[in-house]
Amino acid sequence: MPRVALLSNPRSTGNRSLLPRVRSFCARHKDIFHYEVEHVSQIGAAMRTIARVQPKVLIINGGDGTVQAALTEMFNGGHFGDSPPPVAVLPNGKTNLIAHDLGAGGDPISALERVLEIARSDLDPHIVRRELISLSDGTPSGKKVIGMFLGGAGLADTMLFCRHNIYPLGLPNGFAHFLTFFAALLAIVIGITARFLPPRPSLVRVSMPASHSFRGRFAVLMVTTLDRMLLNDRFSPSHGSQGALSMVLVEQRRGSVLRVILAAIRGRLGRLTDPGVHIQRSEEIHIEGEESNVILDGELFQARRGRPIVLKSTAPMSFLRLAA
To answer: Cα(first)–Cα(last) distance of the chain, in Å?
Structure first.
């Protein structure tokens, strides 16, 4: 019986060069069950097949969008009953936020070897529990999409600017992200709009029921259940709020944005005190605006007036941490 199931998305950017190596590795290790999907719509069928195999670990080989789609199917589909396998994520795609949080960095094949090594021994020392973000329109019948990192307001606009304007240039990912960051910072510092810069964020209202409410134009709206972020090694709000959802909200102010960047680089984002920066924890967050963009692990949603996006934390799910 396979110890590990591997779900691959060949259309993920990283897999264009990686997948032949993955296939070769799986061919040499018979205790890996490898399932490839051509589209996220096939992930439901993939999960039903993988559940019959009953693997000790489920590995996802794709970008953050593939991980988000797989987690959503695991959460909503009930394919594994009450005992879903722990999830491991190979470092793939363009941002790798989830893989980075779980300690999977460097070469994906090395990470795959490490997962297989762990699966052949005792899993318990490597299991971590993570709450996830459940995104819906707040109605009982609304589909719940599951993820770990959400960017909204100006952050989402900047991510879309990178996706549509910078990635097509064919630059290395690191340089593309630096160029996007520079363009976004330039737009805030000089306060202008131009075709070669991310747009000015639209008005949005962010609220936590029975608690705080914020309305305005925000350079950054970030909600996550991840421990590790891109610049800030450990993200841990310390302002006394409670909940599994960690939120950073930065108003479109030049000084506030610059102080957030410096605090993030120094690893002190959770302890920053600034009137234009709001750092909170909550179990539920509502986002409402005039077609304000929201991106959950690569998938785009829009918050509209009278139809807010509702974020809630889920029950914890098991993941496999590769780092010691």
So the answer is: 27
Does the pTM exceed 0.70?
Answer: yes
The proportion of the chain whose per-residue pLDDT surpasses 70, expressed as a percent, equals 90
- The verdict on 78 and 165 lying in the same domain is no
* DSSP annotation string for 150-203: EEEHHHHHHHHHIIIIIGGGT--HHHHHHHHHHHHHHHHHHT---TTSPPPPPP
Which residues are CB-neighbours of 302 under 8 A, at least 6 positions away?
291, 292, 293, 294
121, 155, 172 - which closes a domain:
121
The C-alpha torsion from 131 through 137 and 139 to 140, rounded to 10°, is: -40
Residues 161 and 238 placed together within one structural domain of the fold: yes
Number of domains comprising the chain: 2
For 111-136, the pLDDT digits (tens) are 889 888 898 888 889 998 888 999 98
Q: Does 245 fall in a domain? A: yes
| CA atoms of 74 and 54, how far apart (whole Å) | 14
Segment 208-239, tens digit of pLDDT: 887 789 999 999 999 988 766 544 445 555 55
Identify the CATH number of the domain in which residue 115 sits. 3.40.50.10330
